[in-house]
Design a protein that fits this description.
Distance between the termini: 52 Å
Oligomer: single chain
Number of strands: 20
Structural class: alpha/beta
CATH topology of one domain: TIM Barrel
Bound molecules: cobalamin, iron/sulfur cluster
Number of helices: 24
CATH class of one domain: Alpha Beta
Largest sheet: 7 strands, mixed
Strand content: 5-15%
Low-confidence stretches: 604-611
Length: about 675
């Protein structure tokens, strides 16, 4: 940290890769609050700006040239190393996918073609093709709207350093262009919300440090909070090698206290930093890492999010929809598998923005940005709060449409659900989790299958689209219990408008992770590369279904049977739960729009290879098979815990060594 700071702007940056269909809420929420305190900050959504760069004709032309050259080079060889084989297949498969991506973006933003299901599906497929091209360009890294990872190794500092030093990011040029145009900022805060933002967040930290060595650089957001809270002991110090400070939990009080300390180019006394709420810094003299006192925001002090720095037309949707968080935390906070938000700290309890203030915020957002659609971006609303909010919306004549997550509660009677509908609620997502009474008890979910069925019907019959989020494999779940979930879904199919059947994943900080023995979990381990401890691996003796169980196939078949009756998709597309696109489709075509298959997209892609046939010298199907076999064997070894360290060996280095051994074998 330098003692000579520029007196420029304070920037808050939202990095790729995340959903480009609407602006995320965290930084605009901070800007709204700080504005109320008289502190100016500028928000930049690099995620959506990057999407424009990625679909620009010049970017695509450059990549096409690059991949064509690479293909010719590899295709001219007599043999390829194992890694080259993997790259070659991706390059050869990507070359025919070049097309006019601007047209796909145009469809997503167009008020007519967006709602043409076949045109929409074609545009969505085009954008997925773009990600496949990026996978070839950036091999061995992969990117989508909610993924940015290595072929197999989790992000650790070694992998991050090599990604950054190799200037591997597909956005390197874009970032350099943006940073070159900036006047030296005095403060840059980067939000690390999702795992899929890890590489670009750290990439940006390094670039900002290179361009503006004197600015105060900081990371905040739920993902970095998780990394520091659960990561290996050295993680905090290593992150502080990238930035001057890390904000844990909420950022309002941190920035309210920190930014005035940086005003006018002054350099804060380390003692002042150490006393700043929720802030982690390193004392420059002693090198000791210090954390400021915990601060929890009283939501009566909050302000409406301020989206004024963002160009809402830029997002991938025909009309804007805004996120707003009238509550924080969860009033239930008992579910066994959940480490949601920051509830586990105990200090971050369920809080609500007073109803009149929340409705005034919504009205202000509607007037300022001309939006009708809102997503209430919260863990949950309590029923009482939801009813009061709905009544206030009606009483004050606010005309909005909204979507949110709610808990299944007896309070949601038919009459109350009709009230919510009249107040604009059009889509709700429930954490149903299981259809088995036994598993729901194990989960401490506080609901029964009967209650789920009843409450869901009340919402559905009121005209509100209902989405069920379920998963299989909770510790203690056997075949019968897993089947009960699918049976419940099948039985209620006519009144369930969207669903997802996920697989249990152990969440750091959850009750199961903290008290594994209570749930029959034998051991919890991590891969050697997972220094942030984001992906615990567990083994249990509780009769859980596993892939070797023949009945597993039966469950898969049931899921397939259910899914083919719906039009489901992954984030952020129409068909996924709680996405902007899904909400627009639900509003246009009604509750059941995803409860039937859509027409197939017309194949109107303009293939790049047109006229120029690509003739792979090495058979692509054979290469795919070899890669799958290699990965299968590799992962079997790489995910086996070492009895001494308790870690499984998977990490970037270990994978590279396995590749080298394979190449050695091939040479012999
Ligand atoms: C609503 C929600 C969603 C919505 C909307 C998300 C969207 N638009 O992209 C939906 C349902 C679509 C969703 C989906 C997913 N979500 Co979600 N979601 C949430 C939830 C419940 C609320 C988010 C919110 O609005 N909070 C309110 C705002 C004001 O708080 P905030 O964002 O945390 O910001 C505050 C602080 O973090 C801090 N801060 C943030 N950035 C910065 C930066 C600086 C510089 C500073 C100083 C401070 C600071 O200050 C802010 C104000 O106090 C959170 C849990 C939670 N309680 O936060 C999970 C959460 C964000 N989701 C999570 C996940 C994993 C996902 C999914 C990947 C799930 C999946 N497997 O598919 C998807 C990915 C979607 C995507 N975008 O790609 C994780 C993210 C962490 C992680 N492990 O990656 C969270 C934290 C839940 C968890 N603990 O696991 N999600
Ligand atoms: S799963 Fe939902 S209801 Fe359960 S504790 Fe987590 S946020 Fe609350």
């Amino acid at each position: 940290m330098s003692t000579n700071r520029p007196a420029g702007e304070s920037l808050l940056i939202y990095p790729p890769f995340a959903d480009p269909t609407w602006p995320y809420v965290s930084l605009s929420t901070l800007k709204g609050y700080l504005g109320r305190c008289g502190i100016q900050v500028q928000v930049r959504d690099f995620n959506v700006e990057a999407f424009s760069y990625l679909t620009e004709a010049s970017t695509i032309a450059r990549w096409r040239q690059q991949l064509t050259a690479r293909f010719q080079e590899l295709n001219g060889r007599d043999s390829l190393t194992r890694s080259e084989q993997m790259e070659y297949r991706r390059v050869a498969e990507a070359l025919p996918l070049f097309q006019d991506f601007g047209a796909a973006v145009g469809t997503m933003r167009d008020g007519e073609s967006f709602y043409d299901q076949a045109a929409y599906a074609a545009a969505r497929d085009s954008l997925e093709d773009l990600f496949r091209i990026m996978e070839a360009v950036c091999f061995p890294f992969r990117f989508t709207c909610n993924r940015a990872d290595h072929l197999v190794a989790p992000w650790d500092f070694q992998l991050l350093d090599s990604y950054i030093a190799g200037r591997t990011s597909p956005l390197d040029q874009f970032y350099r262009r943006q940073l070159a145009e900036l006047a030296a900022p005095r403060f840059v805060g980067i939000s690390l919300t999702f795992v899929s933002q890890i590489p670009e967040a750290f990439y940006l930290c390094r670039l900002f440090r290179e361009f503006f060595p004197d600015c105060f650089l900081m990371l905040g957001g739920p993902c970095v909070d998780l990394m520091v809270r659960h990561g290996r002991p050295e993680v905090t110090a290593r992150i502080l090698g990238y930035v001057d400070g890390i904000t844990m939990q909420e950022g309002e009080k941190t920035l309210e206290q920190l930014l005035p300390l940086l005003a006018g180019g002054s350099c804060p006394d380390p003692a002042q930093l150490a006393a700043t709420a929720n802030l982690i810094t390193r004392d420059p003299v002693s090198g000791i890492i210090v954390q400021g006192p915990l601060a929890v925001l009283d939501l009566a002090e909050s302000a409406a999010p301020d989206y004024s720095d963002l160009d809402l037309q830029r997002y991938l949707a025909p009309s804007p929809m805004l996120l707003n968080s009238p509550t924080r935390g969860c009033y239930w906070n008992k579910c066994s598998f959940c480490g949601y938000g920051f509830n586990q700290s105990g200090a971050h309890a369920y809080r609500e923005i007073p109803v009149p203030q929340a409705v005034a915020d919504l009205r202000a957002l509607q007037q300022k940005y001309g939006v009708a659609n809102f997503y209430f971006s919260c863990d949950v609303l309590s029923p009482d709060y939801a009813f009061r909010l709905a009544q206030e919306i009606l009483d004050t004549g606010l005309e909005i449409y909204w979507s949110t997550d709610l808990r299944i509660e007896a309070a949601y009677t038919p009459e109350r659900c009709r009230l919510l509908y009249r107040a604009g609620l059009r889509a709700v997502a429930f954490g149903v989790e299981s259809g088995s009474a036994k598993v729901l008890r194990l989960m401490h979910k506080g609901v029964t299958p009967e209650r789920i069925r009843e409450v869901n019907r009340h919402f559905h019959q009121a005209g509100i689209s209902t989405a069920w989020m379920t998963f299989l494999g909770h510790p203690g779940e056997g075949f019968q219990e897993a089947k009960a979930t699918l049976d419940l879904l099948a039985a209620e199919r006519k009144v369930v408008d969207q669903f997802i059947v996920g697989t249990f994943g152990l969440t750091p900080g959850s009750r199961i992770a903290c008290r594994p023995e209570e749930f029959g979990i034998d051991s919890i381990s991590f891969t050697a590369g997972d220094v942030f401890r984001l992906f615990p691996i567990h083994s249990d003796r509780s009769g859980r279904i596993n892939a070797n169980d023949q009945r597993f196939g039966q469950l898969d078949a049931e899921i397939d049977d259910l899914s083919c009756r719906y039009q489901l998709d992954h984030y952020p597309w129409a068909g996924a739960i709680s996405t902007h696109h899904s909400f627009l489709y639900l509003r246009r075509y009604g509750q059941r729009v995803f409860a039937k298959a859509w027409p197939l997209p017309q194949t109107k892609k303009q293939k790049a290879g047109a006229g120029k046939k690509i003739q792979p010298r090495f058979p692509l199907a054979g290469l795919r098979r070899r890669e799958e076999e290699f990965m299968g064997h590799y992962l079997e070894l790489a995910l086996r815990p070492d009895p001494e360290t308790g870690l499984t060996p998977l990490c970037f280095d270990h994978f590279q060594a396995a590749l080298d051994r394979e190449e050695e074998k091939d040479r012999r």
